[in-house]
Please model this.
Amino acid sequence: MKTGTVLRNRQLQNDYYEVEFHAPEIAAAAQAGQFVHVRIDHQFDRILRRPFSIHDVSADGGVCVVYKIVGTGTQNLARIAPGESCDLLGPLGKAYTPSGKGVVPVLVAGGYGAAACYMLTRTSAEKGVLLLGARSKADVILADRYREAGYDVRIATDDGSLGMRGRVTGLLEPLLRDYAGRELFFYGCGPHPMLLALARFMRARSLRGELSIDHLMCCGVGACFSCVVKLTADNANGWRYARACLDGPVFPAEDIYLEG
Model:
């Protein structure tokens, strides 16, 4: 456990916020796809920590997390002022594998799943593509940061208020046409139905990649088995359980069990 002093805690847009902790040991070890487990002070009626994907780190020990206010825990987090602190566990979980030279990284993100993939822009050998899906224009976040990193950003919104109208998976076929002849490696982070749809698309076309299965977590260290996901297995059931917090949250796409 490490103390993370809040350096800044600001609103990005609407209900989306970004907090930066000073946590040098975590910053030095963190990799894309990992998370921190945060205990929010002054929240004595809720004892469980909250898991947040690591959005970015800085050379001077900063650890950035992007979050959306969805309940009491994140409401309390948004009230924490610079100079206050939170207790942090991390970095936790298995990270994404950076793509190699000559391989185009394709990041498929739903909502603030875009936050969890951002460090790949720093570690992958090639500039890549971000396929970003959201409910509406109001939920499209971090696109400019990816553009500044040299990424080809393509957007889909459910209501058509920005980019293509429809699901983010509707951007996949056009991408394959535009990047025909290039070696691609896919990374996914977002709502579970989106990830399953992405896994089916990839499997049908023998595409390689990794998905971050971000299930609800309690302990964050593999002890409570509350965040299990199904992976394919050579047994009578055809699947086995794995813990998202410890065995993941990043898994090879071909290992995700697809029911039906």
